Amino acid sequence: MADRKIERALISVYDKTGIVSLAKLLQGCSIEILSTGGTAKLLGENGVSVTSVDSYTGSPEIMDGRVKTLHPKIHGGLLAVRDNPVHREQMEKYGIKYIDLVVVNLYPFKQTIAKPGVTVEEAIENIDIGGPTMIRSSAKNHNYVATVVDPADYEEVGLQIKNTRALTNETRKKLAVKAFAHTADYDTAIADYLSSIYGVKI
User: Fold this and answer.
1) pLDDT at position 59, please?
2) Which domain holds residue 20?
3) How many structural domains comprise the chain?
4) Taking Cα atoms as reference points, which of 76, 31, 51 lies closest to residue 167?
5) How far, in Å, CA of 149 to CA of 145, rounded?
6) What are phi and psi of 78, to 5 degrees?
């Protein structure tokens, strides 16, 4: 697969380390930025122009933020096969835009359960749903979409985009592998915790 030009990015991060600098670089490359909640607020406060996910999808964040990115306009934009005419036709029919870059990291489940006296309810509220779903959708479709889950990769990704306005196939592959390893580790931590709490052997 060829290098893929980056025209639209979705940014939604719990750990905001380095995210303002990356977003400013993307904006400087005329890349449209979609964002959610606290991330959108931080970027806006730092002079980055963002489109909120709820204004793009037409659906507000609901259920205390449990449902905000679980929407066809998000996952259609991540999962569409760009060379498939049926997918292109459906994108146009339903007003879905391609998303070329996803920058996501997750609610801090491991840090939450490490706190003294944490309750099961608190732990469960820190099980991220939308984040892993976006990571998996974009990483599955890495022929077309790049997935960044680690702030340590911002510099390399940003430099490549700044120089070429695109990300190489090799970079997208590497990021996809890292993304699936990240969600696997996250789910393993959740399974291990609930197994110990509920006394269920796995």
Assistant:
1) 75
2) 4-198
3) 1
4) 31
5) 13
6) -85, -35
